[in-house]
Each structure stands twice: as structure tokens, then as C-alpha cells.
Amino acid sequence: MTRSPSCLSKLSGNCSAQSSRHGGEPEYDRGVAFRGVAYIFRRDGRADASFTRAVAIRLDRLRRRDRWRYSVRRRLPAVDRIPLDRPIFVLGLQGGGTTLISRCLLRHPTVVSMSGNSDYWTATDELGFVRNRMTSLPPSLWSSSHRTDIAYPLFGAEHDSVYASDELLPFYRRTADDATTEDAERFKRVLREHIAVYARDPQRARFVDKTHTYTVKIPYLDALLEGCSPHYVLVLRNPYTMCFRAVRRKPPSWQPAPSYERQIELAAEHWENSCRLGLEDGQRTGRFVAVRFEDFVRDPEPTVRAICRAVELDYLPEQVPCAEHRFPFATLPTDTKWYPLRADEWRGQVGETETAIIEERCGSLAASIGYTREGERSPELASVVA
Asked: Does residue 32 sit in helix, strand or coil?
């Protein structure tokens, strides 16, 4: 990579990037396995029957997710001959609706993720987030979690909702100039391995991923996947909701937490940088569409049709959430991200102080997308589906 940790630290002034003892990969202590066992068998106050079912679900989730790790198929030379045909990247912010949009795509029989296909459409679908996948990826493709390789006194190792803030963006932003042949081959191999393990027909499969940090790396992804025609779906959501929600539901690992107003400011920086770069970079590719999550919630079918048209995927009615759909068994009991779709429960809680802070940083871009402090209107940007 052309950006070295030392030059990145100079951009931030009061922080530095720190490589671990494993050649720049995150340090994983031996307690990880024990925490995994504890996760599987924790009771959460459930009755015995519910506890037994919860354990079975967690075990099945791990089995499905980690098939890739133990599969002989992924190690075969033939994997390199699998077509890498127009992979799809669902982009956006954490808590911004990317999970629902990704699931709509995963219900298509030709689409595959890092841990399942349409039989398991609630599968984990973030390559850069799962530790055992991170070790196979270049560090430039890691998510914002488990970032022990970046020593930053304010944010710790978990950078949820702040990785695109002005302070952290230099660590996460990547462009075509950062791409190397080695990283390109490494990334393509990982994608092909997952297609080999999880796709019904590897020769016709379309891979989908929603690692959120890729929102600020579109030119980099495009360079790594040159010749593969990757497609990008940017999911937008009202910043007056997103920033308020982020400091409550998706905060980083503060060390220590700054003032509440500063937290809102950082969330606003994160929203504005992510959406601005995603829109600018995506439009340049010619393989890009942006949708507003609020439009999807109001009437999902037109949004799903528009996405399928943009990513060159045949639309199927079963991709739209409806009451008849049943979650696969390996879905956590607390998972409600499908049907019924839920309206914004946060907007009414946002006060004048938060609104003013968010508007100062995000107001201009938000208005072009159709978001104002008073509500929503039609977007001005042609790349945003109305």
C-alpha cells in the first residue's frame, strides 16, 4: 500500500497506527475461543426449552459461517477458475438499513454471501467484520471492529459510527492509487473461495457483501476488481435520525467519552463524509445506485426493483419482505429485520440542539438527497432513486 501507518499518523497529529505482533493483523488473545463457548451456552434468563433452541441456533450459525474455514473445496486450484462476475457491494452506515437491503438480494437464488445463499438469507454478510476472514484479507479491507492495529486514544479499537469522521477517515479511506496487484489477487481469491463453498452454481453466482467501511473505498475496490465490473448499492438514511441514533446504539469504544455535543458532531462528520464520498465515487463507476431507506420502508417493491435493475439481477417477487416469509432456522431469536418493516422511531426524539449540530455539517448534502430538518422531499441528485 502506498499509505504507510507512519504517514497516516501524521495526518491525525495526536494518534498513531500500531501494527500487532502478527505482521499488522489484529492481536487475538486466547480468550476468544472461551468467549465463543460462553456465547453459545449463555442462558439470558430463558426457560430450558428456549435455552436449548438458542444453543442449537448458535451452533448452526457457527457451522454455516465457518464451513469456509474447514472446506477442502476452497483449497482446490480450480477455485481460481471460478468467474468473479459483477460482485455487489451494499454500502452505507451501520444502522442505516443495509442489512435489510442485503437480505433482499440474498433471497435471490444466484446470490451468495460469506456464509450462505438464498437458503440462509439471514447469513452474516460482512467479510471485513469476522475475525477469521480478516486474517485472509488485506488490512485495507477490514471493517471498523477489532481494530487493535490502530492505536487512537479517543476511540479505542471499536470505531462504529466514527470511522469516517475527520480524525479517522485517513486510516480508512482508500483510492485506486492504493491498490496493489498482491492485494487484488488476495481479495479475488477470498471471494472465489466463498463462492466455491456456498454457491449453488459457482459458474453463475453473484457475490454480495456489506462491509460498511467499503463505503469510503469504492475507487480502491474498483481497482482491486478491475475486469470484474463490481456494482455498488448505497443505502442512505436521514442524518437527523442516523446521528442521534448512532451515539446511542452504535458508539465506538470511547476512551473516555467526549461531551454529548462532541459525540453528535463526530457522528455528523461520519455521515457527511461517508455519504459524500459514496455518492461521488459511486457515480464515477457507472455501476452504482443510491436508495433512501425511508422510501424502501414505505414501499419496498419499487426500491428492490430499482436495485435489481441497477445491479443487473433478475427481479423476483420473493425478494420483497412479506408476512408469509419465514426466517431460516439459524436466525437469532432476537432478529426482527425483515417483516413487518418498521418506521423511524428516532426522529421524534431529536431535539433542537442535536438538529442544529447535524444541520451545520450535513445540511447541504442532506438537502440534495431530500432530507431537511422539517422532513423529506424528492431528491435533487439523479443518482438517488426517488
From this structure: helix
